[in-house]
Specification:
This protein is mainly alpha-helical. The protein folds into two domains: about 1-50, no CATH class; about 55-95. The chain has helices at about 15-20, 20-35, 55-95. The radius of gyration is 28 Å and the shape is elongated.
Length: about 100
């Protein structure tokens, strides 16, 4: 099901005009839902939330997880390097 937020249309359209379009909106929704309109071979996005996860999606998720892990390791390494560098700087200045 498609949900449409119309809360921002009130400055652009009056309620009677919106109500007059109800039949057109219903027909458009039915056409999308049944997949019978022109360009119906491009409606895969309608079922995305309920479609089973594909191998490609699993590969993308796995790659994203690896990238996050590598990023986290990189930043941890940089934090340790920076802490060591600051410690050395303090020692050289005689603050330690």
């Amino acid at each position: 099901m498609i949900k449409v937020d119309i809360s921002n249309v009130w400055g652009e359209i009056a309620l009677p005009d919106l109500l007059n379009m109800e039949k057109e909106v219903f027909a458009a929704h039915k056409t999308l839902d049944e997949g019978t309109g022109e360009g119906n071979d491009f409606l895969g996005w309608l079922n995305l939330p309920v479609t089973e996860e594909t191998d490609e999606i699993r590969r993308i998720r796995a790659a994203a997880k690896r990238i996050r892990e590598q990023r986290n390791a990189y930043f941890k390494e940089k934090a340790v390097e920076r802490a060591i560098e600051r410690s050395r700087e303090k020692q050289l200045r005689g603050e330690d």
